[in-house]
Write a structure and sequence with these properties.
By secondary structure, the chain is an alpha+beta fold. Helix content is 63%, strand content 7%. The chain has 25 helices and eleven strands. The strands form three sheets. Strands 6, 7, 8, 9 and 10 form a five-stranded antiparallel β-sheet that branches. A four-stranded antiparallel β-sheet has the order 2-3-1-4, with helices on both faces. A two-stranded parallel sheet has the order 5-11. A hairpin with a 5-residue loop joins strand 8 and strand 9. Helix 1 crosses helix 11 and helix 10 runs antiparallel to helix 19. It starts with a helix and ends with a helix.
């Protein structure tokens, strides 16, 4: 592989005009496609294989036009102090608002508070339920705007009006902090390279890669049903890996220049060596992201595949566009250790003869491996302790900041009707096979009334055919509580006895039940997903390092990083530690998809540092150094760059902590802290300590497996032969 990539790097350097034009053409094509495509709507949301989804599907068949999984909104009215919602003036304002709410083209129905018994006992709070024909992910912006305008008219009449429900679901905003993250990355690159041109190349190519990826997602949004949130993960991962991959190529290029090679040869060798690491690091990230499809949640699958495509583009850009741009940059990109005119007067760095910081640190670790290993493991173990208290759930309006109308509506409904009113359960009774359908409906209602923690059970509401009925159950506790989850399971446990007694089928659905089913589905998929991703990447790393213990150590280190990062997420978002600093207004259960999402993304990113750092150690070992010295050599050449790459990735991910969406905020924080733990504790401390303790055993591989594995030559051993051949050709020509 190294020889092939070496030739590719030299070709891109030499044919820089062709390569640059090709990428510009791809960016233009993607941009034109995005601009001419219809505006991206919000993708449909379904969770195949869950009871809640089966119930929704059944309702679509038996209650045509009901839009069971359609968006809902609750417009909550509160009377001024000392007044009642039944006062004539207040009632007239509400009825006018209800009439306006029902005029939208996507509105299926609107329930009047006064005819639907939706006024609180003390008469101070009322609500109007709005049902839409499409889901909250598919609702048009015009319908949301009309909803807000209708509420505004009621406010003008002196009422307090707040809106809750999934009808207000919108694309997340990241804010200016994302730009700050990129600015920090630019500063780190300038410090690392000592040159504005060299620092600008990774930023430029990362932006081009993300531009192509996100534009392609926008162009394909409608035919592939990609939601507006799909591009968020692609942007986050694409920026981080795009900068890092280019950083490693440019850094190796400058190192080759410092060894006296001409620029084309240096570009070829940089792509042949660091490029090989980029390819395998990119493959681990792609495997992790595409592997999200095993969860069988379409939205998560689309996000993973879209982000994987952006990572693949970042790899291709690093291998081709970077050497082409290095050809354009010419002598403005200086050899390693030499400063640019602007930043250092064009002078070479002073050579004190003192080892660099990476060398000194690695030498210390090699001398004290046990102490460093224990300190690193104990530190990560302490950070992981909060993960034992992990509570999972999906965010609802109760987890929104108190400044939002959704949260204020949630609180008003809780005050007026009880906390469980925000998460009613919809029990669907399929009595098509029952001899006495009405008796079956009544039996189900009586069974549910006998359960604990219930406020209200409505009478069965059958369809026109009379073979299916809906029973609404209002729990006592709030939707995200464990008590409500227990109630859902208790109702479902009645299904077997109901079926035997009445031949009817009982299904529980609604937003609360759907959240519970999604959480369970994600939990059930975690271990199979972990086995798939880690297993495939383990096999890949065996090929890269030609070792059994090095990939095993990499996988175990990753698990430490993920557990510690989950512990930090629990401490901040569940316990409330540093919540003010992170602008977390409401603590609560950790998002259900967070563990499986972190396993996938963090594993791919963790393997980046493993491949970049340990490949250089492997290269030194293959070329004759003893194991301890190989560790030091790897750090001498890679520690500074890996540190810069980690700081850049942390900065990019931290930029998403400023998002208005709690899910994006949590993902940004979780990935940033996971990269910190993995890069600076696992890869920089635990990895060299373990390799120092293992010695030559770290690179052991059974002879039969060594013969069976393909030789991908990540270390660039074949480049020596290639260089010698080139030198002999030059002598013949002379």
């Amino acid at each position: 592989m190294a020889t092939y990539l070496y030739k590719l790097g030299r070709f891109a350097f030499r044919r820089r005009h062709f390569v640059a034009l090709l990428w510009v053409a791809l960016l233009t094509l993607a941009g034109v496609g995005a601009a001419s495509a219809p505006p991206a709507g919000n993708s449909s949301f379904s969770i195949p294989g869950t009871e809640a989804q089966r119930a929704f599907d059944l309702l679509e068949q038996r209650f045509p036009g009901m839009s069971a999984d359609g968006a809902t909104a609750r417009v909550v009215f509160q009377a001024p102090e000392g007044q009642k919602m039944t006062d004539p003036g207040n009632k007239a304002a509400v009825e006018k608002t209800v009439k306006e709410l029902g005029s939208g083209s996507e509105v299926a129905s609107v329930a009047d508070p006064y005819t639907g018994k939706a006024v609180s006992r003390d008469g101070t709070i009322a609500y109007a339920s709005v049902k839409y024909k499409v889901s909250g992910m598919e609702l048009e912006d015009a319908s949301r705007d009309a909803l807000k305008e209708s509420a505004g008219h009621a406010r003008d009449a002196g009422l307090t009006v707040e809106i809750g429900g999934d009808a207000l679901t919108t694309a997340p905003e990241t804010g200016s902090s994302e730009v700050i993250g990129i600015a920090i990355a630019a500063v780190v690159l300038v410090i690392t390279f000592g040159s504005l041109i060299a620092a600008g190349l990774p930023l430029l190519t990362a932006i081009i890669g993300v531009g192509i990826g996100v534009s392609t997602i926008a162009a394909l949004a409608n035919p592939l049903d990609l939601g507006s949130t799909t591009s968020t993960l692609a942007t986050m991962i694409g920026l981080a890996v795009g900068i890092d991959y280019a950083l490693f190529i440019v850094s190796r290029y400058r190192a080759e220049l410092a060894e006296g090679r001409d620029r084309e040869e240096a570009a070829g060798r940089a792509v042949g060596t660091a490029g090989s690491a980029v390819v395998f690091a990119g493959l681990t990230v792609v495997i992790a992201l595409v592997g999200l499809s095993v969860v069988n949640i379409p939205m998560l699958t689309k996000m993973g595949v879209a982000a994987a495509g952006t990572v693949a583009i970042a790899v291709l850009i690093a291998l081709t566009l970077i050497p082409a741009l290095l050809g354009y940059a010419g002598r403005t990109v200086k050899p390693a250790g030499e400063k640019s005119r602007l930043l250092g007067g064009g002078r070479a760095a002073k050579k004190s003869g003192r080892p660099n910081m990476g060398t000194r640190w690695a030498s210390f670790v090699v001398r004290r491996p046990v102490a460093v290993l224990l300190l690193g493991v104990v530190g990560l173990g302490a950070a992981a302790v909060p993960a034992a208290s992990l509570e999972l759930g999906l965010p609802d309006d109760g987890s929104q900041p108190v400044s939002t109308t959704q949260r204020r509506a949630y609180d008003l409904l809780s005050d007026g009707f009880g906390p469980g009113f925000n998460g009613p359960l919809m029990v669907v009774v399929d009595a098509k096979g029952s001899a006495d359908k009405k008796a079956a409906f009544a039996e189900v209602g009586d069974e549910i009334k006998g359960l604990k923690d219930i406020v209200t059970v409505t009478p069965p509401a059958p369809n026109k055919a009379g073979d299916t009925a809906i029973i609404t159950v209002v729990p006592k506790s709030q939707p995200s509580s464990a008590t409500t989850e227990d109630l859902v399971h208790a109702i479902r446990d009645k299904s077997a006895s109901i079926a035997s007694a009445t031949d009817a089928t009982l299904l529980v659905t609604g937003a609360t039940a759907m959240n519970i089913d999604v959480s369970q589905k994600l939990n059930d998929a975690l271990l199979p997903y972990l086995a798939l991703v880690v297993g495939l990447a383990f096999l890949l790393l065996i090929v890269v390092f030609r070792s059994i213990l090095v990939p095993l150590k990499a996988a175990l280190g990753f698990l430490l990083s993920v557990l510690a990062a989950l512990g930090a997420v629990v401490a901040v978002f569940q316990w409330g530690w540093l919540s003010g600093l992170m602008n977390v207004e409401q603590t609560g259960p950790v998002m259900s998809m967070m563990p499986i999402f972190m396993v996938g993304v963090v594993f791919g990113l963790a393997m980046d540092y493993e491949v970049f750092l340990v490949t250089r150690m492997r290269e030194a070992y293959v070329h004759g150094e003893n194991p301890g010295q190989a560790v030091v050599t790897g750090f001498r050449y890679s520690a500074r760059v890996v540190t810069a790459a980690a700081v850049i990735m942390i900065a990019v991910f931290s930029g998403f902590i400023g998002s208005s969406e709690s899910m994006i905020k949590m993902i940004g924080f979780g990935l940033a802290i996971a990269v910190f733990f993995d890069a600076f504790i696992v890869r920089m401390a635990i990895v060299p300590a373990v390799l120092a303790l293992l010695g030559r055993r770290a690179w052991w591989l059974p002879a039969w497996l060594d013969r069976a594995l393909p030789n991908v030559d990540v270390e660039g051993e074949g480049l020596r032969t290639e260089s010698d051949t080139d030198g002999e050709r030059e002598l013949v020509r002379a």
